[in-house]
Amino acid sequence: MNSKRALFLLGISAIFILTSCSGLKTAVCTTNCTVSGNATLNLTLSDTPPAGVGVISFTLPISGISLVPTTGSAVSVYSGGNFELTRLQSDSAPVAVGVSVPEGSYTAIKVTLGTSSGVFINASGGSITSSKGTCVANAVCPLPAGAATSITFTFPSALTLSANQTQWIGLDFNLNNAITSSSGITVDFGQANVLTATTTAPTGISSGNVANIDDFTGIVKAISSSSITLNSTARGNLTASISSTTPVYDNDPLNPCSSGTPSCIKLGSIVSLQGVLTSAGVVDATSLDIINGSTTPADEVEGTIYPSTCNGGSNLGLILADSAVPSANATLTGLSYGAGFCLTVSPTASFLVDTGFLPTGQLTAGFSNSSDIQAGQVVRVNVSNVVAGSVVDATATNLVLRYSRLSGTVNVVTGNNFSINGLPTYLGFTLSPLVATYSGSTIFEGTTQGINGLSNPSPVAIRALYLNPVTAQQGIPFLAAKVRLN
Predict the structure, then answer these.
(1) Which of 60, 126, 312, 385, by CA, is between 20 and 30 Å from 178?
(2) Is 203 within a domain?
(3) Domain count within the chain
(4) CA-to-CA dists, residue 136 to 11, 112, 118, 129, 199, angstroms
(5) Which domain holds residue 441?
(6) H helices within 235-369, ranges in order?
(7) 3-class DSSP state for residue 404?
(8) Residue 60 and residue 12 share a domain
(9) Which among 247, 266, 292 is the end of a domain?
(10) Given 402, 427, 462, which residue is the final one in a domain?
C-alpha cells in the first residue's frame, strides 16, 4: 500500500457496493442477428477488495466507455450512468450486454468518469481533514469529490474481435488506489491502477459463463415463462432468462409462494435475482428470492446501518444503497446514493432474515428485535411518514436483514467455517469472528475447491448475513452467500 495513504486507510473501515442508477445497457438484436462485420461485447464491473478503507457509500458517474482501435476513431460501447460502490468487493454487476462492435483490432479501453461523491466513517481515533472540512473521530462524513477525468487501460496485447464473435471484458475498479492522504483526504482517479480490465473469466465461474451477476433486487415489471424484468429505483432495470425450473426462495411469510417456481411470482412484487452472464451474452437467473410477494408492496429502502445519534440517539442511522418506490414518493425517488436516513422503528415492526438460497431456514436468532441491530448490517426496511431534510426522517415498519459486503484475510479454516481478520474496526470485533459457508450453496469465486481453497492469510471478500454475534446461533455472526478469493 502506498505510504501516503497509510494514515487514512488505517483510520477508516469499509463496505462497498456497486450499482447502476440508469440500469443495464443492452442492445437486443431481433432481425439479421448474424450480420457479418460486427462482434458482440459484454461488460461487467467488480472491485479489488479495499485494505481497511472506511467508505460506506461512493457514487461513481461513468459518462462513457469506448474501445480504442489500432487505427481510426474510438468506438462507444456504453453511454453512461451512475454507479454506487458498495458491492464491488464481493459482487459483480453488468454494465453493458449485447453491444454491437465492428470487427477489428483494439489496443485499449477508455472509461470517462464524472465527479464522484462518497461517505465514510472516521474510525482513526482523531480528526481527519479534507476539502469538505474536518471529520472528527467516529463521525460519518462526506468524502471529497473525485474530479471528472478519463482513464485508459491498455491491453497487454491487442484485442482482436472477429465478425459474429461474442467477447466479454471484466472491468475492475480499485477505490483503494484512488484515495490519498498526503494533504488531507483526496480522491484522485489519476493514481496508478485505479482501473484494470481482463478478458479471462474468474476461476470458479461455471463452464459457459463469464461472470456472476449478484443479488439484483427490484420490483417485478415483467415476467413470462422465459424471462423476468426487475426495476430498482436506485439501480435501474435488469432482464434475465428464467425457466419453469428456476429455483424460487420465499422470504415473505405474509405472501407465500406455493409452487416454489417462477409461476407464483406476481407483477409488482419485490424479488432478488442471482444469476450468471453467459459467454453468449445472456443474463441467466440461477435463483429468485421473493422479498415481498405483495402486488402492492410498501416503499422500501436498503442500506448500511451506521453508528448514529440522530434525533437524540434512540433511532437508527442508515446510508442509502438501493430502493424500490412503488408509490413514486418524490422525496424517496429524488434521493442519491449515500443519502442519510434517521429511522424510527415502529413498536409493531417485524424482523425477518432474507436467507435466500442459503439452507438455513427462517432464522429465529441473531435478528429478531431492535437490540440485534448492529452497525455494518445491511437492512431493507418498509418506510412511512417520510419527511425530507438533510437527513430523511421515516418510520420503519418492517425490517429485513440482507447481505453485508466485507473484506479481510482468512485466519483459520475449520470444516465449513473460517475465521476472518481485518474487518472494519467500527464493527467492534476484538477476536476473529467466524464465517459459515454451505456446501453446494455458498458461491466461491477465485477457487474451484470451495472452502478448501482458503488458507491463512488468503485475502477474501464476503457477501454475508451479519447477525448479532451475542444472540446468533452457535455465536456465528456471518453466514456467507458468496466468498471471493483474491
Answers:
(1) 126
(2) no
(3) 4
(4) 11, 33, 17, 9, 43
(5) 405-485
(6) 330-333
(7) strand
(8) yes
(9) 292
(10) 402
Q: For residues 228 and 288, is the Cβ–Cβ distance under 8 A?
A: yes
> Contact at 8 Å (CB) between 66 and 79?
no
Instruction: Dihedral sign for Cα 388, 392, 396, 402, please.
Output: positive
Q: Is the dihedral of CA 410, 412, 416, 422 positive or negative?
A: negative
Say how many residues make up the chain: 486
Other CB atoms closer than 10 Å to residue 419's CB: what's the count? 17
- Pair (398, 409) in one structural domain: no
Q: Tens-digit pLDDT profile for the chain (486 aa)?
A: 444 444 444 344 433 333 344 444 444 443 334 445 799 999 998 887 666 557 888 888 899 999 999 999 999 999 988 888 778 789 988 899 999 999 999 999 999 999 999 998 887 778 888 888 899 888 888 999 999 999 999 999 999 999 999 999 999 998 888 888 766 788 999 999 999 999 999 999 999 999 999 999 999 999 999 999 999 888 889 999 999 999 999 888 888 887 778 999 999 999 999 999 999 999 999 999 999 988 888 999 999 998 877 876 668 899 999 999 999 999 999 998 899 999 999 999 999 999 999 998 778 799 999 999 999 999 999 999 999 998 999 999 999 999 999 989 999 999 999 999 999 888 889 999 999 999 999 999 999 999 999 999 999 999 999 999 999 999 999 999 999 998
C-alpha cell at 436: 459459515
In a domain, 445, yes or no: yes
Which residues make Cβ contacts (< 8 Å) with residue 12, sequence separation at least 6? 52, 53, 54, 55, 120, 121, 122, 123, 124, 128, 424
CATH number of the CATH domain containing 421: 2.40.50
Indicate whether 175 belongs to any domain. Answer: yes
Distance CA(59)–CA(116), nearest Å, equals 6
